[in-house]
Amino acid sequence: MDYIAFEPFPENDALPSPQPSLSIPLKSNIENLGAKLSQFNNLKQFLQLNAADNIEEKVEDSKLAEKYALLSLEQLTKDQKPSDSSSSQDPLARSEALSTRLSRGLNPTFGDASMRELFTRLESKSYEESMDHLVDAGIEGSIARKNLRSQVEAELIKNYASILADYAKPVKVLKTLGERVSALVVSINETKDLLEKDVAATSDLMSEIDALNSEKKSIDLKKSLLVAFRQKFTLNEYEQYVLEYNDINQEFFDALLRAEKINEDCLILLAVDNPKQGRSLLAKNNDLVSKANQKITTFCTRSLSNIYSLNNRERLNTLHMCLDYLSRSPEKLNSVLESFVKTRSASLLDEFSSQINGNNLSDGKSSISDSRPVYFSSHDPVRYIADLLAYVHSIVANEAETVKNLFEGEQDLSQTASKILEQTLGSLAKPIKAEIDRVVSAETRLQTTCQIMTHLELYHLMFNKISDAIGINESIAAAMLLAKEKVELILSNRLAAAKTSNLARLDLSSDLQPPEWIIDFYSDILPVLDTMTSATVFDMPEAEHKKFLELIVDQPISVFEEHLNFESSAFDRRDLVIFKLNFLDLITSKVTPIVLLSLKVAELVLKTKSLRQEAQEIQLQELLRSCSLTDFYNVTNMIFPIDKELLDPSIYQAITENKLFNKEAIAAANEDIQAVLPTALMDSQSTLIKLNNPIDVKEIVTSSFEQFQVFYTLFSAIVTEYLQEPLLSWSSDDVGTMLGIDDSDSYLILE
Amino acid sequence: MYDTFDDQYAATIGIDFLSKTMYLEDNKTVRLQLWDTAGQERFRSLIPSYIRDSHVAVVCYDITSKKSFASLEKWVNDVRMERGDDVLVVIVGNKSDLGAKRQVTAEEAENFCRLIQGKFFIETSTKANHNVKLLFRRIALCLPEFSEATEAENRLETVEVHIENTQDNGGLCC
């Protein structure tokens, strides 16, 4: 249904003017009417649809529409009159009432579904026939509307009746149910009364049950606590059995670990108010753990004391497990390992003792029972030491193998194994040193001691490669030191013996040959030094090496010189020098081929040179004395030392003041010269016949004669210069020829 | 020894110790303790002391060196002097891989072995790892009968073997 907006018409218009529109709030809300009336749009659409359907019919029937419009206008006019008074009285109230009504009519309380149903029903009814009558304003219309009303009401009642009929059955059921419920309520009340009576009657029992229940809960709690306690703080019977009586295996260690865990847990029990239980448990567990530890320790000790038992792989694995366990407690592990070290050390010492003493060899303990014992070679100290150290080497190798096999696969114990081996082998260090010391100390032969020393050096070199045998190697090093000292001692003793020996002094005979003791001395020591390949003697430090060289080179010379001093009265000066030269020559010839003694060769050469000069001076003086020229030689030298580069007679003018410088004396000397010089060469060589080194002889003779020739040449020139007469018959060349000096004039050029 | 060959193997200093455990077919285990002696002259004086305790002497020569073969007799004499007949002497010709340079025939060595009453003769090549295992296996097999009377049945047998190496700086099997 559309609301048509009325337009005002002028009053003087022929057409009747409709009443002005009511100022109801509906207009102002027309925009949101759709929102306000939720069904408005639906209604509008529905009407539009109907209107559209009817438009075509209506257009044709415009007259009917016009009629309807007129009727409406009339109706409005009629309605307007009585409403004027009221509208004038209270238009606002009227508009509000209308608005309310419209709202109520247009916005029914029932929903769309109901509305749809209503319209459907209306459509289903054939009101179309009476539609014209319904809108008729007359009696027919009124009757039609009343009929419609009555029809609608009848239908409504019919509908209500059908709806109510649906409820009749449930109502009936509900009534029946209500009766039953009432009966039930009664029954409940009765039961309730009975229960109340029963409750009152059984209240004591209930309270007792409650008490028992709570007691049960408490007991259950205690039980679960005790079970948990037992699981946490005690070993079961089987575990105790395993710990006390079972063999050591993985199960044993599991039980032991659990026992130890319990011990740790028990500590918390000691902190509670009553620690009695904790103490008791701790004591019991401690007892089990200590017994188990004792069992492990005993097993380890027994196994390690009997190495052969460990050839059984299972036993070895058990030992490894035990050692793993003991490694958590270093004290216990050390105790076991110390025991092992002691056992092995004792075993090694017994074997070593049997090897060097030859006792208990038949008891089968020796690992080399069918080999010749070391002591068999004790008659030969060098072989004995070599055999002894070879035997020690085999012990070291065996022991290293044993320990390696024992701790195979135990990475954590590798250092411990090394330490054990070191300690075990270390136990042999002192006996080895003592035995070597005994042999070295007892030995008095230089060569034997040196051979022992060489063996010790070689073994020291080999043992150096075995890090675990450091103790033994230190003993060998100490023994080497002792052997070195022994060599030095033997040499010193030999020299001391020679020094104090009367026989050695008597050995200084007139043949001027070196004494026997020095020959023996060098024949002993030099072969030893010759075989050495080290840079210094016995690889000594440089200072000790020098000291040793002094011992074998300088000290024998000192001893000899001391002897010579004692016997000096028996020899003239030349013999003493020849003696010394022969001695030095011997030493030089012995020392020179030895590389280690090369330092001393230079010193010996210097000493020899000095002695050679002394011998040369003696020879010159002897020749001068034979020629009665000694005084002239001395005077000349006093004026200016004779130098073959400066043979100027004018320097020696002062000689004229000397009383000896006269013709008679010089003439006499000339006669002696002529008598002596022809045989001088042979005489000199014969006096030096006891000098061993011919080079020395030649050197001494030649240089002394050269000096004589130089003096003769100078003196001859002086005589000719200051006495104005050549009193010396022979020329310098003559003298040179007679003395066997070649090219004597080549450097004797007088000024 | 250890199935390896080292061209740069350092020369033996003094006497080297090696050990090898042999597992024989009859479940017997023999541990061989081997003393490898140095070829240097200065260590020669030590060798007799090691022969003293040895049960087997493995005397090696170089098949490409007649000189090394010639010195075998001296070494065998040294061994016999120390141990008499209480030692097994095994003659080993090494460097069998150098057949083209051979100076000593296998027949010569066989004859020598028979002459000195050696246990057996074998040619080996440590470089090519030829016959080395066989050598030690044969030595191990020889030993139980050797020491049958003295060794307890179930005890691990420890046998010392002495190796005389007369060849010149040959590579060592290790």
Low-confidence runs of chain B (pLDDT<50, min 5 residues)?
149-158, 168-174
Helix-strand pattern of chain B: EEHEHHEHEHE
Q: How would you state the average pLDDT of chain B, rounded?
A: 78
Helix count of chain B equals 5
Strand adjacency order, main sheet of chain B: 1-2-6-3-4-5
Described by its quaternary structure, the protein is: heterodimer
Helix/strand class of chain B: alpha/beta
Number of strands of chain A: 0
Q: Please give the count of helices of chain A.
A: 26
Taking the alpha carbons of the first and last residues of chain B, their distance comes to: 4 Å
Spatial shape of chain B: globular
Low-pLDDT ranges of chain A: 1-17, 24-29, 83-88, 361-368
Q: Summarize the amount of helix of chain A as a percent range.
A: over 70%
Strand content of chain A: under 5%
Tally the structural domains of chain A. 5
Which two protein chains have the largest interface (Cβ within 8 Å of the partner's Cβ), and how many residues from each? A-B, 27 and 24 residues
Portion of residues in helices of chain B? Answer: 25-40%
Describe it for me?
The complex is a heterodimer of chains A (751) and B (174). By secondary structure, chain A is mainly α. Chain A folds into five domains: 26-166, no CATH class; 234-308; 327-486, no CATH class; 501-614, no CATH class; 627-745, no CATH class. In chain A, 75% of the residues lie in helices and 0% in strands. Chain A has 26 helices and no strands. Chain A has helices spanning 25-28, 33-36, 40-60, 62-89, 91-106, 112-124, 128-134, 139-233, 237-245, 250-270, 276-305, 313-326, 330-357, 381-406, 414-442, 446-463, 470-500, 502-506, 516-531, 542-566, 573-591, 598-626, 630-639, 663-687, 694-723, 732-739. The radius of gyration of chain A is 76 Å and the shape is elongated. With 174 residues, chain B is α/β, with parallel strands linked by helices. The model of chain B is unreliable at 149-158 and 168-174 (pLDDT under 50). The A-B interface holds A 308, 311, 367-372, 383, 386-387, 389-391, 393-394, 397-398, 401, 454-455, 458-459, 461-462, 465, 533 and B 13-15, 17, 19, 31, 33, 42-43, 45-46, 48-50, 52-53, 86, 147, 150, 154-156, 158, 160. Chain B: One of its GO terms (molecular function) is GTP binding. Chain B: It is a lipid-anchor. Chain B: It is found in: Endomembrane system. Chain B: One of its GO terms (cellular component) is endomembrane system.
